Amino acid sequence: MSSSSTTSPQAEPITGRWRLDPARSSAEFRVRHFYGLVTVEGHFDRFDGTLDLDGEPSVELTIDADSLETNNRQRDKHLRSADFFDVAHHPQVRFVSDTATLEGETLSVRGRLYAGGADIPLAFETNIHRTDGELEAEAVAEVDHRELGMTWSPLGILRAPSTLIVRARLVRDAGAHE
Q1: pLDDT of 133 strictly over 80
Q2: Which residues pair with 15 in a beta bridge?
Q3: What pLDDT, on a 0 to 100 scale, did the predictor assign at position 153?
Q4: Is the separation of the CB atoms in 51 and 135 below 8 Å?
């Protein structure tokens, strides 16, 4: 039996510039409501993002705040108002990394989340998996929406934190070189 020095494609480092494919990705949120007894779930229909693993790694995500959907028209209108996202004055929710470190398939990210005219620090880890020449990742982060000025909650019925979930399918950025 001979030994080989070749490595499998999975063992090679992940590099390059990647773009989120919105058609095969999702940006979702969950928040406890009614004194924590009910979980309200929602998603955003329009978003875009990049993962750059060349040079100093970076992550960016931009969400159209007006595309929020919870399947309740009255609640969605209120969430778009100045009590929460204030989409008339702040049409985007953005995350921009300050640092990102890739060790193997684990990406550790620290950055800032911007929403409703405020910003807060946010950190998370995600595992990146290669699938058919593309990447898959799921990032989950807990956010205290009150720190973003989203404090409307008569009698404390809205509980913190909110959970943000981004399930990303990433394809090579056509404008980048390999």
Answers
A1: yes
A2: none
A3: 63
A4: yes
